[in-house]
Amino acid sequence: MHKYSNQNVSCPHCGHIIKIPLDASAGSQEFYDDCSICCNPIHLTMEVDELHKTINLFVDADDEQIF
């Protein structure tokens, strides 16, 4: 599995496709990145599955709350 890659995602705020750099060398992570188009924060959750050699990326808006 590649430890470094880029992933195209759709901004949950404006809908534009942006490229997000991913670093899977530290395992699963939760982080924020700003949209390069609208500058709003994007919440990203990256789950690294070493057994199946996959990376799952979940994208949502920073203002979404789960109760």
TrEMBL record:
InterPro entries: UCP037225 (IPR017143), zinc_ribbon_bacterial (IPR025990). This is Molybdopterin-guanine dinucleotide biosynthesis protein A. It holds the Pfam family Zn_ribbon_21. It comes from Photobacterium carnosum.
